[in-house]
What we know:
With 85 residues, the protein is mainly α.
Amino acid sequence: MTSDTPLTGVVLVDCARANAKGGLAIAAKQCGYGNSTASFQSALQAACSEMGVEINSLSDLLSDEAQPEGKRKGIEVAPESKNDL
């Protein structure tokens, strides 16, 4: 559901995280910033900073599993073969 007014603080971060997979334009619209992605990004940076969270882009809010395959930060741990299970 799209917010009628621009969200701020923790509520903004939660909304941005929930809509991050859809991309910047969708997240901005859903969080009440309409087509103003620059205002959305600025408010999101400020909200994250207030919380002590450092982000470089909206995709930083995605969980590791939701990240595209090439951007995942973790490593895969698996046995060499089925016999090693």
